[in-house]
Amino acid sequence: MRIDIISIFPEFFRALDISLLGKARQSGLVDVRVHDLRDATTDRHRTVDDTPYGGGAGMVMKPEPWGITLDHILGDRSDVSGADAASAEPGASGREVDASEADAPEADDRPIVVFPSPAGAVFTQSTARRYALERHLVFGCGRYEGIDQRVFEDTARRARVELVSIGDYVLNGGEVAVMAMIEAFGRLIPGVVGNPESLVEESHEDGLLEYPSYTKPASWRGLDVPEVLLSGHHARVAAWRREQQLERTRRVRPDLLPPELRGTDGE
Ligand code: ADE
Q1: How far is it, in rounded angstroms, from Cα 64 to Cα 162?
Q2: Is the distance from CB of 134 to CB of 112 less than 8 angstroms?
Q3: CA separation (Å) from 175 to 9, 12, 267?
Q4: Does 120 share its domain with 156?
Q5: Both 192 and 238 in a single domain?
Q6: Does 54 share its domain with 131?
Q7: What is the value of ipTM here, to two decimals?
Q8: How do residues 216-226 score in pLDDT, each as one tens digit?
Q9: Which residues bind S-adenosyl-L-methionine (predicted)?
C-alpha cells in the first residue's frame, strides 16, 4: 500500500518510523511519503493561507500549493485537460462522497484522498477495514479555518475524495486525526500484524466493546481473577466473556446495540 501525507508540519509524522507501522515500512508492505505543503509555494514567506472571501475570522488555506502537491502525487492533470476537464465537475464518477456512502462496494480503483475535517463523516472501525484494503491513500491535513473548497472539487476530478472526522470535537489541524486513522487501519493491512487472530476479539470488531482481560497472578492486592477464567471450561469462558461484552456495551455505549439488546432485564 502507498500512503501520501500532505502537511505543513511533516515532522508530526516521524512517529510513523516506530512501532508496528515502522516495521511494515521497513519490510516494504507500506510505502509512506510525507510532503511539506510549503514546498509547493513560490513566495519568499512560503505562504499557504489567506483571508476568506466574504469576510470572517481566521484564515483559509490557498488552493495553489494544494493543487501543485496533489498534481505531483496523483499525476499531472493532462488526463482531465480540454473537453474532459470542462465536464469534469464533481458528480457522477468523480464526486465528493461521505464515508458511509463510500462503504458501498464499487469498482473504482482511483486513489482515495482523505481530508480530515470536523465537518466530515465519522471514521469508524468499518472505515479502517475499508482503508486497509486500498492500494493508494492520500491524506491532506488542513489547518486554520479550512481549505479552499475548490481543492476538494479539483481533486474529485481524478480521485475519490472523502472528508473524515475522528469525532465530535475540534482539533487545531488534521495531523493528529491522520495519525489516529493510520494507526487504526495500518494494523488491519494484511501482513502487518503477525497473528491476525489477535485482531478478532477486539472492541468494535463484532459491534461490541471488548471483555475485560486478566493475567497472572490469580490474586493481586485482594482482587481475584473471576473464578470462571480459572476453570479451564472453554464454553463457560466464552459465555462469560460474551456476557461481559454485552454488559459493558449496554452500560457505556448503548448506541452501538440494536434496540432489542439495549434493555437491562436479561437478554
Ligand atoms: N480537524 C479538526 N478537527 C478534526 C476532527 N475532529 N476530525 C478530523 N479532522 C479534524
Answers
A1: 20
A2: yes
A3: 8, 7, 42
A4: yes
A5: no
A6: yes
A7: 0.98
A8: 999 999 999 99
A9: 142, 166-171
Angle (CA) 249-250-256 rounded to 5° is 60
Q: Atom 10 of ligand 1 has which residue's CA nearest to it?
A: 117
The pLDDT value recorded for residue 79 is 52
Q: Which residue lies with its CA nearest to atom 4 of ligand 1?
A: 118
In a domain, 97, yes or no: no
Binding site members for S-adenosyl-L-methionine: 142, 166-171
Percentage of the residues of the chain whose pLDDT score is greater than 70 = 87
Last residue in a domain, options 177, 198, 219: 198
Please choose from 170, 181, 182 the residue to mutate so as to test ligand 1's pocket, defined by most ligand atoms within 8 A of CB. Answer: 170
Whether 118 is in the pocket of ligand 1, judged by its Cβ within 6 Å, is yes
Q: How far apart are CA 96 and CA 152, in angstroms?
A: 7
The C-alpha cell that represents 245 in the structure block: 461484552
- State the average pLDDT over residues 213-217: 98
Question: Binding site membership: which residues?
Answer: 142, 166-171
Same domain flag for 118 and 240: no
The C-alpha R_g of the chain, in whole angstroms, comes to 23
Percentage above 90 pLDDT, the chain = 77
User: For ligand 1, is residue 174 a contact (CB within 6 Å)?
Assistant: yes
What is the overall mean pLDDT for the chain?
Answer: 89
Which structural domain range is residue 67 located in? 2-76+109-198
Domain count, the chain: 2
5-17 confidence digits (pLDDT tens): 999 999 999 999 9
Atom of ligand 1 nearest to the CA of 170: 3
Q: Cα–Cα distance between 86 and 247 in angstroms, integer?
A: 56
Are 52 and 144 members of one domain?
yes
**Each residue's pLDDT tens digit, 66-77:** 999 999 999 976
220/100: higher pLDDT? 220
